[in-house]
Amino acid sequence: MSILSSFAEALTTGRVEVVDLTAPLSSETPVIQLPPQFAQTARFELEELSRYDDRGPAWYWNNFRTGEHTGTHFDAPNHWVTGQDGEDVASVPPQRLIAPAAVLDFSAQAAEDPDFLLEVEHIQDWEATHGPLPEGGWLLYRTGWDARSTSQQEFVNADDTGPHTPGLSPACARWLAEKSTVIGLGVETVGTDAGAAHSFDPPFPCHAGLMGSGKYGLTQLQNLAQLPPTGALIVAAPLPIVSGSGSPSRVLALVERG
Ligand code: MN
Fold first, then answer.
1. How many domains does the chain have?
2. Residue 51 lies in a domain
3. In what helix (H) or strand (E) does residue 47 lie, and over which residues does it extend?
4. pTM of full prediction above 0.90
5. Cys-Cys with 249: which of 118, 137, 146, 238 at CB 3.0–4.6 Å?
6. 156-175 pLDDT, tens per residue?
7. CA 57 to ligand 1 center in whole angstroms
């Protein structure tokens, strides 16, 4: 039997499960909030064109408006100044949109400390148990933050000192960008960087490092708890927005069961 025939059968029998890692996209979807001197991203909005009425008697359809970086989305290299000569979201080779994932669970640490930062040593400890991060694959960083994704306030978790959400240390971000073999970082939070990363040196080290290295980001993922530490295959499907810096994306995981 061909590989794809076997795969199709495994989908039918449930031997391969499809786990949706995508947050629902609506006007309620939390968005990042930048300091007031900067331009702000749009919330997702639907504009009804017709709904089986005078405007279109047999059909229902909408226009929509959204930021490229709204909800579960893909960061392309040209999103950051460090990657400005890199790929736009339409230029990402399609074979890179299907890739294996390592899932690192630090939800217990993030529950204790919302500013928890992943370090290189945490990844090396994980690799000692599970093997190396997948070459050409994703590091998916589980923090439990998906449980907050129905509330703008809880998701962004800001106080007088700014947002408090887990992320990577500058050293870890640099290592992931420059030394590791992964193509990108996937997170459950509103962006790949920690909430406090505006104060890091360099600021926003995940964005600066990953984009500058031609790597990618995936944000606001959910259901990572349903994935094994190794072995899941990720399908990340951003829209091919010509010259775009990112796109809301459907992100699916294929997981072999039993
Ligand atoms: Mn983004």
1. 1
2. no
3. strand 45-53
4. yes
5. 238
6. 999 999 999 999 999 999 99
7. 38
